[in-house]
Design brief:
Layout (H helix, E strand, L loop, with lengths): L2 H26 L3 H21 L8 H13 L6 H19 L7 H26 L1
Length: about 130
């Protein structure tokens, strides 16, 4: 792995952390749509960082999900539950951003932020094993 790849991975992990903090602010200030968006993007940035450890990328969100499932969930490096969580956050983000009359629930968003923090932590740990 090149120094540039390592720098980009660290940058994306920083964006994941930043997005989690933004999700928390959005929840506290009663912006549920923005919160759902930032939860998904926290996971997305973490996954794109993880894919870079194997020189993988996709220009589409669905492609990122597929690569994540193929290379990390299916072989058992990430639990199926976490793979389903990531896919569900993508669906939530799409619905929240584009569907009419959809209001993400505040209590659910609080628990989703906690799950996203766990998700990002697990992905970060997996990435750290790639650097060794």
């Amino acid at each position: 792995m090149t120094k540039g790849q390592e720098d980009l991975i660290r940058y994306k992990l920083g964006r994941a952390s930043e997005s989690l903090a933004e999700a928390e602010v959005m929840l506290q200030t009663d912006h549920p749509h923005g919160c759902a968006n930032r939860i998904y993007y926290a996971c997305f940035y973490a996954v794109t960082a993880l894919l870079l450890t194997r020189d993988l990328s996709s220009s589409k969100h669905s492609g990122v999900i597929a690569l994540f499932n193929q290379h990390f969930v299916k072989p058992g490096l990430v639990s199926v539950d976490m793979g389903k969580f990531y896919s569900r956050m993508f669906d939530n983000r799409i619905e929240s951003d584009y569907a009419d009359w959809v209001e993400p629930a505040g209590q659910d968003l609080s628990s989703e932020i906690s799950r996203a923090e766990e998700f990002v932590d697990q992905v970060t740990t997996l990435i750290e094993t790639q650097f060794k």
